Amino acid sequence: MTETEKTLVSTENFEATEAQLEAVRLAARTAAQAENALERYASIVLTDDETIHRLNCDYRGVDRPTDVLSFPADEGDELLAPPDGFLGDIMISVPRAEAQGKELGHSTERELAFLTVHGMLHLLGYDHIDPEDEKEMLSHQRAIMSLEPLAALGGEKTNETEANTESSESVKAMKEINGFEIKKMIGLAQEARERAYVPYSKFRVGACLKAASGAYYLGCNIENASYSPTVCAERTAVFKAIYEGEREFEALAVCSDSKNCTSPCGVCRQVLSEFCSPDMPVILVSSTGEYRLISLGELLPLAFTKGDME
Ligand code: THU
Q1: Which residue in 120, 150, 264, 290 could disulfide with 268, CB within 3.0 to 4.6 Å?
Q2: Which residues surround ligand 1 with Cβ inside 6 Å?
Q3: Alpha carbon of 48 to ligand 1 centroid (Å)
């Protein structure tokens, strides 16, 4: 028995299946092992949406349910020293994991493993507030999910893209983007939408373009009384990034107030194709936050690019 089996996985207000509990145990152990922290352990509680919603409110002041919360032991009451090796607590909502798994086309167990690894990395000191830190955390997260036994859960596909996409070749060839990154970019595109200047159409659009440097460039649509000079949110984001010296991009998210997933117009697709590769993932977001993933190559097949002028 390894030391990490001290990690206690329990349930609160929720009856988890043995397979779910086992996926969480395996993920906690694999994360600890990969991070050379086998002597450390955590307490992981699987619960329902209501319980995690309450905790999210109490501890983070966020009035909605979430998928995973981590409480590092060293951030607690300093008078109550944590026991030796104790990393802290992780709370996971199984119904959320189930819904996310469905959305992404993989099992609840695989999503639970992903959330457990995420929580364990937080307890081990990783964070994703700063883009550089985030890059590091994501690369560890990806590496751990590709290790056995997690790979057997579908862990090697940190590419959560497959589920949401159609099965065309260009989409299959899409660059990897994980669920965590997708959520972050959707949030940023929604923030960008707030800045839309749309006195004529009243149709707000927000875009978030992630550069290979790790920086995010946000754009909104900016309209004009003479209509045709109007610039779309996507092009605002691209041009800001190009001006800043960026030349390589990893992903784009676009949202509007439409209940349909917002798709870039033809002109923006052409502009994007100048700078972004056909395998770049594009996240098309609806007003309720649902999204669809598609590659730029699928949005604009046979794009006319500099290669065509040779
Ligand atoms: N719009 C965008 O910002 N992006 C798109 O890809 C589609 C259209 C904007 C332009 C205009 O301000 C409004 O939506 C209505 O066309």
Answers
A1: 264
A2: 198, 201, 203, 205, 221, 223, 230, 232-234, 264-265, 268
A3: 39
pTM above 0.85, yes or no: no
Distance from C-alpha of 251 to C-alpha of 186, rounded to nearest angstrom: 11
- Domain 4-155, CATH homologous superfamily name and number: Metalloproteases ("zincins"), catalytic domain (3.40.390.30)
234 is catalytic: yes
Provide the 10 A C-beta neighbour count for residue 80.
8
Judge contact between 120 and 71, C-beta under 8 A.
no
**Tokens read off for 27:** 């993920």
CATH assignment, 175-309: 3.40.140.10
Specify whether the CB–CB gap between 113 and 157 falls below 8 A.
no
- pLDDT value of residue 172: 45
pLDDT tens for 65-112 read 889 999 999 776 556 666 788 999 999 999 999 988 887 788 999 999
Q: Which residue in the list 234, 246, 250, 298 is annotated as catalytic?
A: 234
